[in-house]
Amino acid sequence: MKKGLIALLLLISVQVAAQRKHSKQTSYPAYNGLIMAGYQGWFRAEGDGTNARRFAYGNEERSGIDMWPDVSEYAKTYATSWKMANGENARFFSSYDKSTVDLHFKWMEEYNVDGVFMQRFFSNARGRDSVSSVILKNAFAAASKHNRAIAVMYDLSGLRANGEDCSALIDDWKYLVDQLKVTDQPGKKTYLHHNGKPVVAIWGVGFPDRPYNIRNIGLERLIDFLKNDPVYGGCAVMLGVPTAWRTLNADCLNDPYLHTLIRQSDIVLPWAVQRYSPLLHNDMDRFRDNTVDDISWCRENNVAYVPCVYPGFSWHNLSRYEFPDDVKPVGSIPRQGGRFYWQMLSTALNAGATMLYVAMFDEVNEATAIFKGSDNPPVSKVTSFITMDGKPSDHYLWLTGQAARMLRHEIPLTFKIPERK
Question: What is the pTM of this model?
């Protein structure tokens, strides 16, 4: 009887696996040993064919970015109203261009950045935005071409407090799997897996400044669908939560239901941007202690843990008109030529991290981008940009690659920032 039951269960398991649309093949069967970054892909430029109402760079009176990209290698760039020191028009890229996305993944391959989570905002999922779908399609093609890991991260930003729930994300995941073939991309299969399952991230769970209530937006139903649906499930779920998720205080909702959701997931990602600074004495000790204690909790609860690291932060230009009573200084969390970034990387690795998430690859709005940035941004009497502190434009890509080698024990871990020979 017992043998017959086991055989039946095995048959059912095989039948369920056969129904699922995800490829079993991937160059990245595990998150462990990898450094992934977040990828916004939301930058538009005048003339790029998207008919965007608002361009990434804005104008001198109303800029939305604090960091200017180095555009010297892009196949397509677009003139802006900004001026360089020599009087020429400053140029910007568009994420909509296939050549832009391909260049970014080429950099990842060149500098040993393992891959990215593609940000999929709730508003994109709700309205099935065609522009973001084109960018996703281009990204998966580039990931295959350059053999980089790639995964989808749903950002709950945009979910309304009017009774809306996560049903749109269930429908959107079906669309991504069926139409864009994200878990079975043409060519080389590179979708990121964890324990043999495709990783799907849900970011924005447990933050007190959100308009939605995590108890009534169908998160358990969404997690159950991603994990157990016979056709679209079989996934590993990663939750993006506040830094103080474990203690349920500070930047986190004081609601133990968050722990219920985390225990139902496979990986937890605490958000660290703006939570640590080189300007605070011994703040890396606090980051270390939090990481050690977080890992211990996750080990006890059978959940994997991925720390978030970032190179610095600046939100001056956007805050000038978004929060005129609380304008942020330029470079409020300074990069210090990469020293702060390396402190976060080395501290996380020394604390026992087996995988990392970098915020972000291309985020120039908050100046957290690690891709190639300009040390000579446009000049303005009104708007200010951070610089690269005299470092090469690829400095943060190179540092990320060095950290990846240390994560995989290919070279020894060092707390001193590496120097190129």
Answer: 0.94
